[in-house]
Design a protein that fits this description.
Helices cover 5% and strands 45% of the residues. It is mostly beta strands. The strands form 7 sheets. Strands 20-31-22-27-28-29 form a 6-stranded antiparallel beta sheet. A hairpin with a 4-residue loop joins strand 16 and strand 17.
């Protein structure tokens, strides 16, 4: 529970990261979030903008690591600037509001400390304390990095700094996980960076093993990530019964993944088409969260608009203009609403955004629920038959779009899905709203308002694709 472990049961995950382009260009060095249901497809929250900004030193936050502690609070450690003996720390009850921010002077008593990079921590149940570990170099420059550690029970008092891992060559970016009573460390071999003649192989990550959390750790032969990678991180995927090992091609601006069921036999790198990461994500921390925690994060950082009032007529919420949440381009989107029809006959528009060139829409058509997305005039439609008793109670519909994949959910269940040849829906200046049509809709129709016959409430627009679990949780919160 308090370190990366295969015993966790959740299938909801958060990634914390900072952002930069290839080779440390275009940097946004603050805390960002993304969420995933499978550990492979990560969707940025808050529009890929920071969710929290540090005020320590120069206000730089890199290499974040987050885990829940024995006190049921979340704890965050991170790399700060300027370089020196400190790492950054903050805590949170909900992953939204971060408090108790402070520098931890973990290398203050070690002479000539140059830096303190990429801190992480693991909970040690034997003595009910946290083992905090990081990489530091001492002397004149960054050429002799080793891993050091301290322990704490309360994040206020700390043990004397000890050497944690020093294999005889440069290492940074260590990350620990427990599997079947053994402890595994993924760590970057940094030796080539400062001694290229002595260590000709390019930088990469390898895996070491120990019987104890504190070590000593011994290298497992034959396991390494591809060349020019760093920032390794483990995550156990319960539904797949396997570990994922993430790593960062920092110079190329992309991520890679390997997988294993036992920590000793690892796959080659997964095909990049099987995963998705936020643009510019660097050196992330991946960890499980509860359904309730994820729901609150989605409401806080992904819900663009929520129209709660029960209505019985078309409601215009966007005029003809260049920007706004019903005008901006998107590649990720979910519209979720509750409705109670008096009839399912004829053509009734429930949601109307954009037009027949670039748009997104929901309608009832002669007993079927239909959804459509269009980009540059290309259309993708999904459809599902409504139940025979749809007029007898409140129903829920959600239309979810993710990088060209369109899904239609009815009453929290996936009813239809399909994929398009396009990914981006470009900006659209048309009017929009719900409960009727406002011009030419994304289906290509313009014959009147085609008003919905019945009541609509809790219309919600998210800038991420929601899954069935997310839709069900959202509806529980707003159930009549």
């Amino acid at each position: 529970m308090f370190m990366t472990s295969k015993n966790q049961k959740q299938n909801a995950y958060i990634m914390g990261y900072f952002r930069s382009g290839p080779g440390q260009s275009h940097k946004t060095e603050q805390l960002h979030y993304a969420f995933s249901r499978d550990g492979l497809h990560w969707y940025e929250l808050n529009g890929n903008k920071p969710v929290w900004k540090s005020s320590i030193g120069e206000g730089i936050l890199r290499d974040p690591f987050i885990a829940k502690g024995a006190d049921q609070h979340w704890h965050l450690v991170f790399t700060t600037r300027p370089m020196g003996p400190s790492i950054g720390y903050a805590s949170s009850k909900d992953l939204i509001q971060w408090t108790n921010e402070k520098p931890l002077q973990v290398m203050m008593d070690v002479p000539d400390t140059v830096n303190s990079w990429a801190p992480e921590f693991s909970y040690d149940a034997k003595d009910e304390s946290y083992l905090i570990y990081w990489a530091s170099s001492t002397g004149k420059d960054l050429s002799n990095s080793k891993h050091y550690c301290v322990k704490t029970k309360d994040w206020e008092q700390f043990t004397k700094t000890d050497l944690f891992y020093a294999p005889g060559f440069q290492t940074i970016d260590a990350s620990l996980a427990e599997h079947d009573g053994k402890y595994y460390m993924a760590v970057k071999d940094e030796s080539h960076v400062y001694e290229p003649d002595r260590y000709p192989h390019p930088p990469m990550n390898y895996v070491a093993i120990s019987d104890q959390l504190e070590g000593p750790y011994e290298t497992l032969p034959g396991i390494q990530t591809p060349d020019y990678t760093e920032g390794p991180e483990f995550l156990w995927i319960e539904s797949e019964k396997r570990w994922l090992l993430y790593y960062d091609y920092w110079a190329y601006g992309k991520y890679g993944i390997m997988s294993s069921a036992d920590m000793r036999n690892w796959s080659s790198e997964l095909d990049g088409s099987l995963s998705r990461f936020p643009h510019g994500a660097r050196h992330g921390t991946m960890f499980p969260v509860s359904e309730a925690e994820l729901s609150k994060l989605l409401d806080t950082f992904a819900l663009r608009a929520h129209y709660r009032t029960t209505t019985y007529a078309p409601v215009r919420i966007a005029t003809e203009e260049e920007s706004g949440h019903l005008h901006d381009a998107f590649s990720l989107r979910t519209v979720l609403l509750n409705f109670r029809p008096t009839t399912v006959s004829g053509k009734q528009v429930l949601y109307d955004e954009g037009d027949s060139v670039n748009g997104f829409a929901l309608r009832i058509q002669d007993g079927f629920m239909e959804g459509v997305v269009c980009s540059e005039g290309l259309k993708l439609m999904v459809s599902a038959k409504l139940s025979e008793n749809a007029t007898e109670s409140w129903q829920c519909v959600a239309l979810s779009y993710a990088d060209g994949h369109l899904k239609l959910y009815l009453n929290n269940h996936l009813a239809s899905e399909d994929s398009a040849s396009f990914r981006l829906v470009r900006s659209h200046a048309s009017q929009g709203g719900y409960g009727g049509r406002f011009g030419t809709d994304a289906f290509g129709d313009s014959d009147g308002t085609a008003p919905f016959q019945g009541a609509i409430e809790h219309v919600r627009v998210y800038d991420v694709p929601l899954y069935a679990e997310d839709i069900e949780a959202a509806n529980i919160r707003f159930r009549r």
